[in-house]
Amino acid sequence: MTKQRSNHKIPRRTFLKVCAAAAVGLTACGKMQTAAALPELTVGSDNYPPFNYMSTDGTPTGIDVELATEAFRRLGCRAKFVTIDWEKKKELLANGELDCVMGSFSMTGRENEYRWAGPYLASRQVVAVDPQSDIYTLADLEDKIVAVQSTTKPEGILLNRTNESVPQIKELYCFSDRSCLNPALVEGLVDAIAAHESLLLTYEKDYGVTYRILDEPLLEVGLGTAFDINDTRGIDVKLTHAYQEMLADGTMERLVSKYFDDPSPFLNMEGLS
Is the dihedral angle over the CA atoms 243, 120, 9, 38 positive or is it negative? Predict the structure, then answer.
């Protein structure tokens, strides 16, 4: 049975007409509309720096916020970011409280759960060690102790051995709070930690720590913006085109460079989904 949305700020059947009218209004009326006058799309996310977080003045910021703001502007719309319980994202999409969700959300393995716009960035799950460690490859993790955040991709990979290049480790520590990963490595409680590469790079930048990230990733996927599987407005297709334009004209590189010294690993999306 097809689920029906309710209480949607912009009904599906009128959304494209409204956006088209807004886009025409930007030029035909002879003056620029203010951002507040544009049709609004509600984007749900949680706190996940550097993709989504609150700035010191309490406004949403981060890579995803900046990318979505620009991409939706190109669609003639305005992105409104709200903080949600990430576990309830599918329910909030289905009942129409959200138009989409975005927050370093990987598309791989979830292709049939949502309608996707993207990928807009590449994301790698990697292993990091102390610079003086004798671990240089994934094979070197054999009989070692590794720490991860619970319910994340690295936990699944290391527990279920879904990556054939990963050997049998000695023990896996799973922390509910990802901020525990760095202290566990620094204090020598574990031999390695596994997480999003972006998270580790942010720790290095913000806290002055130094990791050696292994060249072999545990997993490399594409990040996307997720819409309800029954959302037929076609925004996902238009948003994908906007992301592609932003990559081609250098906007993606410019925005990602504000957060990472080397944006190139995040922009290499060839073959990713």
Answer: negative
Angle at 249 between CA 272 and CA 53, to 5 degrees: 65
Mean pLDDT of 105-110: 89
The continuous run of DSSP H or E covering 17 comes out as helix 12-28
Cβ-based burial of 40 (10 A; exposed 0-12, middle 13-18, buried ≥19): middle
Check if the beta carbon of residue 178 is closer than 8 Å to that of residue 147: no
Residue 156 near residue 85 (C-beta atoms within 8 A): no
User: Given this model, what pLDDT does residue 2 score?
Assistant: 38
Q: What is the CA radius of gyration of the chain?
A: 20
Estimate to the nearest angstrom the gap between the alpha carbon of 87 and the chain centroid.
Answer: 15
Residue 53 near residue 62 (C-beta atoms within 8 A)? yes
User: What does the pLDDT read at residue 237?
Assistant: 97
Helix (H, G, I), strand (E, B) or coil at 164: coil
Q: What is the per-residue pLDDT across 206-248, written as a single tens digit (0 to 9) for each?
A: 888 899 999 999 999 999 999 999 999 999 999 999 999 999 9
- Do residues 137 and 216 touch, judged by C-beta distance below 8 A? yes
Backbone angles phi, psi at 144, to 5 degrees: -105, 165
Res. 116 pLDDT band, cuts 50 70 90: very high
